Amino acid sequence: MLKAHFSSYTWCLKSEPSFGLLFDIDGVLVRGKTPIPAAKRAFQKLVDAKGQFVVPVVFVTNAGNCLRQKKADQLSHILGVPVSSALYEIGQMTYIGRYERNRILSLLFQSSPVVNLPRVEAVVLFGEPIRWETNLQLIIDVLLTNGNLSNAYETTLSAHLPLLACNMDLMWMAEAHSARFGHGTFMVCLENIYKKITGKDLKYEALMGKPSELTYHFAEFLIREQAAERGWRAPIRSLYAIGDNLMTDIYGANLYNRYLDERLARKSTKAVANMVTGAGTPASVPQEVDMDNGWESELASPSATSCKSILVCTGVYNPHMELPKDANQCIKETVFHGHRDFRFDPALVEPEKIAEDVDAAVQLIFEMEKFGTAV
């Protein structure tokens, strides 16, 4: 790992950090294999003289085309700071749940022919394959034969096998001037082929990765772990998610922020009700809705009270593009690039702040948190 090179100024830290940073990778730190120059400058601000991070950091990506350790090593080289695989959170690996012991057809750039496969019990989509037609055919075969590839199609099935998708990015940014097709585009193809053949909508057992709240909840869990390992006693109250894609990075961060707001509101309502009841007055307390689907039991309750979205202009986002204000005019897929099962909400694609690049974003966050002063 490369030792960090420090610029002519340092940061005089006033206190322990009470916030954590969630970094997207493609379009924020790199474009394909090409580093974005601002990324190295940004991370010079985030490490001390010993090369240790001064705030908890997690890299959150939907891309799953290589192992965590390999990606961490690449980031170490690009950023000039030590990055361990523990800091690298692959959105699609956060939760496989009860299917982890079943026979799963997982497509991760897989294009080999199918020969004598046992019965498949679930399908997990990790990322767009090389040969789309081969993999589209294979998935349709599995779904319409109920996992028995030696059988003929059964288009009258009341339900198909469990299908989980881990990357919903319609587009992503590489070296090309325009965005490239992402796994979300592959999913659009699969959904339309399935409906064309069966007349029914394709159903997902789970949608993971950004913009799912589960991904941000797990990322926050990793942030808390880092803070505990460093002996930082201040609870992590704020998360800052830095990304280049309105429909994944910004939508997801804002969706998780809404979840945190609603969670706080429920706790506040319950606390007030308890106070009223304690004073001797009966109180009608609404039952708390289980929004977490087991998250908190597995990852512990979040300590964060907010998740702020920071949009950078080095990737998918075009600063000259204007979003329509009226949601009724935004039903067409040409406007809403999010997945079919996520509704369009103008508030969820409105970033908290917009920064020129990731270096400007880190500078802005430090100022917002009054975390340090330049000398």
UniProtKB/TrEMBL annotation:
Q: Which GO terms describe its biological process?
A: glycerophospholipid biosynthetic process
Give the domain of life. Eukaryota
Cellular-component GO terms for this entry: mitochondrion
Transmembrane intervals = none
Q: Which PANTHER family match?
A: CDP-DIACYLGLYCEROL--GLYCEROL-3-PHOSPHATE 3-PHOSPHATIDYLTRANSFERASE-RELATED, HALOACID DEHALOGENASE-LIKE HYDROLASE DOMAIN-CONTAINING 5
**The protein's name in its UniProt record:** Cat eye syndrome critical region protein 5 homolog
Q: Which organism is it from?
A: Sinocyclocheilus grahami (Dianchi golden-line fish)
| Name of the coding gene | zgc:77375
